[in-house]
Prior knowledge:
Layout: E1 4-9, E2 15-21, E3 24-31, H1 44-66, E4 75-81, H2 85-102, E5 106-110, H3 111-117, E6 130-135, E7 140-147, E8 150-156, H4 162-172, H5 180-187, H6 209-225, H7 229-260, E9 264-268, H8 275-288, E10 291-293, H9 304-316
Parallel strand pairs: 1-4, 4-5, 6-9, 9-10
Antiparallel strand pairs: 1-2, 2-3, 6-7, 7-8
Amino acid sequence: MSVIILAIESSCDDTSAAVIQDGVILSNCIANQEIHKLYGGVVPEAASRAHQINIVPVVDAAIQKAGIKKEELSAVAFTRGPGLIGSLLVGVSFAKSFAMSLDIPMIEVNHMQAHILAHYAEDPKPPLPFLCLTVSGGHTQIVKVTDHLEMELLGSTIDDAAGEAFDKTGKLLGLDYPAGPLIDKYAKLGKPVFEFTEPKVGELDFSFSGLKTAILYFLRRNIKENPNFIEENLNDICASVQARIVSILLKKFKVAAQKTGIQHLAIAGGVSANSALRSGLEEMGKEMGWETYIPRFEYCTDNAAMIAVTGYFKYLKKEFVGQDVIPVARWSI
């Protein structure tokens, strides 16, 4: 009998639902929230309200696109955390009600673990063990994956995440939110002519708060001398900031690979959509003779397909939760 799972993702500002059958993704639907562009960042209350509006249509679309009936579902998987508690509440509450109405089990999923397992949504899939550099707006981690549900955190940020460094830089430059894709776009038109120092921190840990401060002071100093500095040098500024962030990420990732001896390297999370990071990882892999794995853009940002994949692996091990489950804002791998 087929295992068919409905998955729900609502950790931040994207409402997503997906259906997986025996490990194969049948649908992956996402509703974005444009309202946050007005505020230069995600507004938790607005995100929660938008999830309430979007979740029923998105789930319905996922089921329709998968070509199944809800009565065929074996279980419901959902993001329990980490994330914005108000957003998570919407997804968790819906999952509880949906599962209860069909009398099927529920599967809790760690959002960060799911980002890594997004690599199993389609081929090529990294063989075990592998290392994953998970980079998003809220997290920057190096994870050793020994089994689908067995992961070891080797390094993480001690303050801000790489994605936050991109977004805060974009705000300083007057770019719309989210700024990461725009910085990537303008960086392709410029050159990394401005130097930013590399933060000094533990061997496999990251720190981006100092870099953000350095960028702030750099811009203030140059704008004082030339009020049009940003407009005249936007492409080069973006190229310089992006080059430094990517170099920090890949340098640490390379050390992790050398220390562990693992030669299969993957990236995940929203920032893994960055073109410089993707090309940089490929170049490093060729140089060192390592195999690299880069997900399609669809599986980089928050999506329910990655929740579905994780839910499927947990279903096979019968790792279910009861109706007393609650969302958590913080949840380590």
